[in-house]
Every structure is written in C-alpha cells, then in structure tokens.
C-alpha cells in the first residue's frame, strides 16, 4: 500500500495497516493513503501537520520509526556471540534480524599498526604485566596531550574511529591531540593485548565506581568501558579513559561477549547522527547496536530518546521499560521519571524512584535536576531551587544545569537571568542545537524577536534534517531572505560572561533535565505564541 506524508510531501510504501510512519520525518501523524491521480498542491503542503519539536537536554534528535523489528531483544546473547569474530559472522547475524550492512566494522582487529604499538609490552610474560605496560603507555600519552578525553555530556561531532586508526595517529609525531571516548581508547588497549596473544582479557562495561556515588556515565551517552584481566582468579580492571586501575570488587561491571564488544561502535555512530538531527541514520545504527547487544540497557535508552524527541512518548516509554527490565538501576529509573514528567503522568512512584536513585547515587546531579523539575511542576519553587543549587554544586560546568536555571527564571518571570542562563547553556554546550533552541524560545517568550531569529538561524546550521530545518523556520518565522542575510559564523552568544562559572555577584544557575525543556506548540500563529513546558505547564509571561 502506498501512503503520503502530509508534512514531507513524499510518497512511500508500507505493509503495515496501523501506525504507518514516514521514513523521512519519522512522524505518524498526517499520513494518508496516496492518491497518485491527485498530487497535493503547494497550499495543501502548508496545511500539513507539523510534528512538535520537543527539546531535550544533552541528546537532541528526532526519529520515530523502527527500521528493523528486533524480536529477540530480551533473549540471551545472540547465537555465535562467543564465536571468533569476523565481518562475515556479524553480517550474517545482522541479516537474520533484517539488517543489511555492507562491511561490518570490528574496531579492535589486529593489524601491523596495532602490533607495532604493542611492541612496548612484547617482553612481558603475563597478561597482567602486558596490560599494565600498555595502560601506562596510554596514561603517558594522555598526560602528554597526545590524546584527550572526549566531553561525555553530549555526543561527538564525528564518527568513532577504530583502534588501528588511533594507534596510527599516536605513533606519529607532531599530530594534533585526538579526542577519544571511553570505548575508543579501551578498544586500543584491548586490540593491543589481543595482538600479544593475551587470553585472559575482555572488554567490560563499567556501571559505577563505588567511591564516586554516581553512575560512571551519568549522562547515559557514552557508557564507561575498560579491560578486565583475570590473573590467578583475581580480576584487575584497567580504565584508560578515567586513568583508573582497580580490582573487580571496587566497581560494578559487566563482561562483554564478542558481539557486545562491537556494539558500542555502532551506538557511538548512532549518537553522532542523533546530535545532527539525522534521524534515519541514528535509528539505523542504534538498531545494529541493540541487535548485537540485546541485554544493554543504555542502547534501549538511546532508542527511547530518539523516539521521544520526535513526540513518540509511548514508544519511548516502551523502550525505557525494556531498559529497566534489563537493568533496574538509577539510569533507567531516571529515564522513566523523565518521561513521566514530560507526559504529565508523574505520580508518587515517580518521586520515589528519583529518591531511591539518590540514595544509591547521592552525587548524581541529573537526579537532583529531575527532582527540582518535579517540584517546579508542583509550584514548589523553594524546594526546586534547592535541588538545582545542589546540582550546581555537583556539576558547575554542566550545560543542563544552565538550561534548567534558564527555565526556572523564566517561569518566575526573571527574564534577564533567564536570558543570561540561556546564553551560558549555549557556551557550555559549545552551541549545541538543544541549547540554541531553548535560548531562541526564551527570546520568543520575552518578545525579543530579533534575537530569537538570530539564535534560531544558528540552530538551523546545526540541524542535518531538512524536515527539522523547516520546523525551525516555521516555529520562529524565518524566511529565505532571513537566512541569506545570516553571514555571521559565531555560534555562541557573546556577553561579559565566559565559559567559567558565574561570579558570586551573578545569580546562581540550575536546571530541570530533559523533561522540562521548552516545547513550543506550533499552530501557525504569530511569534507571540506562549511556550509550554514539556509536561504542559504554560508559561504565563508578558501578559
């Protein structure tokens, strides 16, 4: 059956009979059976339903279609997970799940470059000694700025690179420092050990270090990884990204199978696409990651966020519930609490989940932000501010904190501080799409339409999807002539504040996380349309 999307004005085929989704904009609304004899006019296009653009902190992206149905997500590890990896094995396994991929990537394959990098540990006898030698080398290179840790708060700009590519760069002289994620640098450590015929090693996903009182990946973006060496029944974990060497008792971790060890590469690709609003590829790469690692809770959270950011709240909730079934811990509880607040379904169990999480992880600043957001929805601004202040103390450079404070001030009609916090969020996030959209909506709510359009035009430059670009244009009344006049390249607003924390004389900052991002309900009205919070709480400003 052929269908037409009223939003994108494209025709496509689908075998489904309900919940038909557009492969371009991922929307389920405005889908109708195609009538090839009656093509839509340009005026009809303009009347098409616009999918609401929901703003999320840290991970911004749209998408709400299953490219592949994964029927075995909650099953045991896929058949062949313990086999020796090969591109053909990965390719055939994915094909069984309906995923076609030309050339699967094994990020830690042994190559001549890997062997050359491993030469520093050739004279070591045990696997533990080999691991220590390579780990120390990576630490030295990190201290010498040959590689630097990637910012964990938001997805990387580009695609991940393999251990071979990393080793080649690190062996060269006078090269710029590599920005590496936990998985990338761990892949190099693992690849090097495998080239030295180490048998008692594996990649592990690290959930938390007990002394830190927070998850290892509080943002639920990159996850934390390391290599475990089992020597004389004693486990030693090497975490080169965080420069940690510890025993297995001091942290909570999961040993990954061969397929699960490849999955993070595709999860990183998915997040890279997601950061650019490339919904189609984001979900495609996520499908590969979920298929290779069906027992990974984080990838299901990623999938839910992709759905949620295009308005697919029910589908997002389903994915978050799947994540919780896999691992019922703070990260999944917070994800479910966020969507409860966004959809206005928060109940006593929502607060209970947040408080249970804080008992387990008292330094989990996102949980404090979420609790502050919950208080805000109740009109309890005093307790909301207390939670935001706690989050600020725990994470003074977190852009989500600035985003939340911006909205806190806006709700309390402190427009100048709302704008200041919006600008700060843009700077701390290095001008990511989410922060720019929040600032543009603050300008709109405060009737500063020139600044609104200038900020929205910068957001346009960050969006990869043409559909999202059109939504931004309509939301902020940006014409083609406006775009052509936008010759500025600065992506961050400038004022007297720097990327450092604000001085004591400035107002403090705080933030409700992903559930309270400003959500404009576009209805083809004038720029003075009042914005609404994600949970439907109206902002009665400038009345």
Structural features, described:
- This protein has 543 residues and is of the alpha+beta class.
- Helix content is 44%, strand content 10%.
- The strands form four sheets. A five-stranded antiparallel beta sheet has the order 9-8-7-6-10. Strands 2-1-3 form a three-stranded antiparallel beta sheet, with no helix packed on it. A two-stranded parallel sheet has the order 4-5.
- Strand 4, helix 5 (163-171) and strand 5 form a beta-alpha-beta unit.
- Helix 4 (127-143) packs across helix 6 and helix 14 (381-394) runs antiparallel to helix 15.
- The model is unreliable at 36-82, 487-492 and 494-543 (pLDDT under 50).
Question: What does the secondary structure layout of this molecule look like, with pairings?
Answer:
Elements: E1 2-5, E2 10-13, E3 31-33, H1 42-46, H2 87-96, H3 112-117, H4 127-143, E4 147-149, H5 163-171, E5 178-180, H6 182-195, E6 201-209, E7 224-231, E8 234-239, E9 244-247, E10 251-255, H7 258-275, H8 279-292, H9 297-308, H10 313-326, H11 330-342, H12 348-360, H13 365-377, H14 381-394, H15 399-411, H16 415-428, H17 433-445, H18 449-462, H19 466-475, H20 480-484, E11 518-519, E12 532-533
Helix pairs in contact: 4-6, 5-6, 7-8, 8-9, 9-10, 9-11, 10-11, 11-12, 11-13, 12-13, 13-14, 13-15, 14-15, 15-16, 15-17, 16-17, 17-18, 18-19
């Amino acid at each position: 059956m052929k269908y037409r999307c009223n939003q994108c004005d494209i025709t496509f085929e689908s075998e489904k009979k309900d919940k038909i989704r557009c492969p371009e904009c991922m929307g389920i609304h405005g889908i109708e059976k195609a009538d090839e004899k009656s093509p839509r006019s340009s005026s009809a296009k303009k009347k098409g339903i616009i999918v609401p653009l929901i703003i999320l902190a840290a991970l911004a992206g749209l998408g709400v279609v299953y490219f592949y149905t994964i029927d075995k997500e909650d099953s045991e590890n896929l058949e062949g997970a313990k086999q020796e990896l090969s591109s053909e094995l990965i390719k055939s396994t994915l094909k069984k799940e309906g995923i076609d991929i030309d050339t699967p990537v094994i990020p830690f394959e042994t190559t001549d470059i890997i062997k050359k990098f491993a030469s520093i540990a050739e004279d070591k006898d045990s696997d533990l000694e080999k691991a220590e030698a390579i780990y120390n080398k990576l630490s030295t290179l990190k201290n010498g700025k040959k590689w630097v840790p990637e910012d964990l708060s938001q997805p990387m700009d580009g695609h991940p690179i393999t251990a071979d590519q990393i080793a080649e760069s690190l062996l060269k002289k006078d090269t710029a420092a590599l920005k590496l994620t936990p998985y990338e640098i761990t892949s190099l450590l693992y690849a090097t050990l495998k080239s030295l015929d180490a048998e008692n090693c594996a990649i592990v996903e690290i959930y938390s270090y007990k002394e830190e009182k927070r998850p290892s990946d509080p943002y639920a973006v990159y996850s934390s990884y390391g290599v475990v060496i089992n020597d004389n029944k004693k486990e030693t974990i090497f975490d080169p990204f965080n420069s940690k060497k510890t025993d297995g008792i001091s942290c909570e971790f999961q040993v990954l199978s061969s397929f699960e060890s490849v999955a993070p590469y595709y999860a990183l690709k998915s997040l890279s696409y997601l950061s650019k609003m490339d919904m189609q590829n984001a979900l495609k790469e996520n499908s590969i990651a979920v298929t290779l690692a069906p027992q990974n809770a984080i990838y299901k959270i990623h999938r839910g966020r992709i759905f949620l950011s295009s308005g697919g709240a029910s589908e997002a909730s389903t994915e978050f519930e799947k994540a919780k079934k896999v691992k019922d811990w703070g990260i999944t509880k917070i994800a479910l609490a966020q969507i409860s607040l966004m959809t206005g379904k928060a109940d006593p169990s929502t607060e209970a989940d947040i408080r249970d999480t804080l008992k387990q992880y008292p330094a989990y600043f996102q949980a404090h932000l979420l609790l502050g957001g919950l208080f805000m929805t109740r009109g309890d601004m005093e307790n909301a501010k207390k939670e935001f202040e706690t989050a600020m103390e725990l994470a003074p450079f977190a852009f989500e904190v600035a985003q939340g404070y911006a909205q806190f001030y806006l709700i309390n009609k402190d427009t100048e501080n709302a704008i200041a916090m919006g600008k700060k969020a843009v700077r701390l996030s290095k001008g990511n799409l989410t922060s720019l959209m929040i600032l543009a909506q603050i300008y709109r709510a405060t009737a500063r339409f020139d600044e609104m359009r200038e900020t929205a035009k910068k957001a346009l430059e960050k969006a990869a999807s043409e559909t999202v670009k059109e939504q931004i244009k309509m939301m902020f009344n940006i014409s083609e002539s406006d775009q052509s006049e936008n010759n500025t390249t600065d992506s961050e607003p400038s004022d007297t504040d720097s990327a450092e924390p604000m001085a004591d004389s400035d107002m403090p900052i705080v933030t409700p996380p992903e559930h309270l991002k400003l959500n404009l309900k576009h209805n083809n009205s004038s720029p003075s349309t009042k914005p609404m919070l994600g949970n439907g709480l109206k902002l009665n400003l400038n009345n």
